[in-house]
Amino acid sequence: MSSATNRRDRARLPGPERRRQILDVTTRLVAERGFWGLSMQDVADGCGLTVPGLLHHVGSKDGLLVAVLEHRDAEDGRSLAAQLGLRPPEPADWTALARTPGVDLRRVCAALVRRNATQPEIVRLFAVLEAESLAPDHPAHDYFADRQAKTLDVFTELARPLCDDPRTLARQAVAMMDGLQIQWLRAPAETDLVDAWDAAAATLFGRPR
Amino acid sequence: MSSATNRRDRARLPGPERRRQILDVTTRLVAERGFWGLSMQDVADGCGLTVPGLLHHVGSKDGLLVAVLEHRDAEDGRSLAAQLGLRPPEPADWTALARTPGVDLRRVCAALVRRNATQPEIVRLFAVLEAESLAPDHPAHDYFADRQAKTLDVFTELARPLCDDPRTLARQAVAMMDGLQIQWLRAPAETDLVDAWDAAAATLFGRPR
DNA sequence: GTCTATAGGACGATAGAC
DNA sequence: GTCTATCGTCCTATAGAC
């Protein structure tokens, strides 16, 4: 018994693994409590660390949140690109979607919803932060303001082939996704997110293809 | 200078006025910070009270939140009843709407949106708490679970005359309202809530009347 | 109905040893 | 990379005087 957990059950993980662990634990806790309700103590406990040990990795509580959001963006970009069959080199660039032939708003939304349905925790993270960050002094305020603007722009481009007023359709698609996700999170037993979205897509985009 | 503010600028308000002041200040602060981010000290300061003075009125921090939510429900019930021309005696009973001739989901949503557009602060209060209260141990968790269930039921009844699948339409109407409100709160300059809703109503319910 | 005083924690962050 | 120790601040709530 010499190799693993050799000092009081506190594993001394290599840097990258420790970082991933911190991001995972934080994601879960922020989804539950929001940023104002998050305590560094809880995160540290969840990682088997002390608070100063945790701060060594992330600098500050604000820094922790930023790290989580950046990590999620990277993951989501990769997943979406993979689902839509894009080439891996530049996965993080949402904007590229709008210029990819054969990809329209309907397909992108369907892909997003299907991915989201498999990870309620992440959806909840964004739902909570989206509301909390309306406050101008919230550490993620600018991040979410940019995100909404960028999402609406890309969705508008994607909606252009589908209707006369793509901006309005983009707005409605975003609103519907956000709203259905909240209902699903509150009553997961009653609601199937994919079914609810497919019905909504029929309303938004017209009957199937 | 004997009647008002006679002791260190701290007005000794009569009970009901003080209560209203507390609820107003709390509403504003919860809308900004959520419940986890709310501090009794800030509420007390905003009322010109000490913290124990504040606690005398509301009992506890949880009690304060409950008081705010109950107060809002009462006000909203009154307003909606007035806008739809119902008799005042029983304004708080949402359920009655479903049995009122000439009232359907389209009209009720239009009335709700038009009222909400005049009070962004209240809309934000609900948006923030709706997300925060997804956590099972949040003091408003049960309140919002009930609220969502009840709203969906009433909306379903109201949608019955309009389509074949009223439950689905009800879900979509709720989702769309919630989602458009978030977008409006984040970028009030770019979005007019009433316009956005009227466009969405055309999508959801079909072209005008 | 409002105060002073205070209990009793939890919080985020820093300094410095190992 | 992680620790111990500690600082200073903020928090909700209670007890009891006025």
Report on the architecture of this protein.
The structure is a homodimer of 209-residue chains. Chain A has 209 residues and is mainly α. In chain A, 65% of the residues lie in helices and 0% in strands. Chain A has 9 helices and no strands. Chain A has helices at residues 15-33, 40-47, 51-58, 61-83, 105-116, 120-132, 141-159, 166-186, 193-205. In chain A, helix 1 packs across helix 2 (40-47), helix 1 (15-33) packs across helix 4 and helix 1 (15-33) crosses helix 6. The longest helix of chain A is centred in the middle third of the chain and has 23 residues, at 61-83. The radius of gyration of chain A is 19 Å and the shape is elongated. Mean pLDDT of chain A is 91; it is low at 1-8. At the A-B interface, helix 6, helix 7, helix 8 and helix 9 of A face helix 6, helix 7, helix 8 and helix 9 of B. Chain A binds a DNA duplex (18 and 18 nucleotides) through residues 7, 10, 12-13, 15, 18, 39-41, 49-53, 55-57, 60-61.
Features:
209 residues; disordered N terminus; mainly alpha; homodimer; DNA-binding
What's the tally of helices of chain A?
9
Q: Classify the secondary structure makeup of chain A into a structural class.
A: mainly alpha
Give the DSSP E fraction of chain A (strand runs of 2 or more residues). Answer: under 5%
**What composes the largest sheet of chain A?**
none
Subunit organisation of the chains: homodimer
Biggest chain-to-chain interface with counts: A-B, 40 and 40 residues
Strand runs of chain A, count: 0
Low-confidence stretches of chain A: 1-8
**Rg of chain A, please?**
19 Å
The chain-level mean pLDDT of chain A equals: 91
Order of helices and strands of chain A: HHHHHHHHH
**What portion of residues of chain A is helical?**
55-70%
- Beginning-to-end CA distance, first to last residue of chain A: 62 Å
Please state the overall shape of chain A, judged from the principal axes of the Cα atoms: elongated
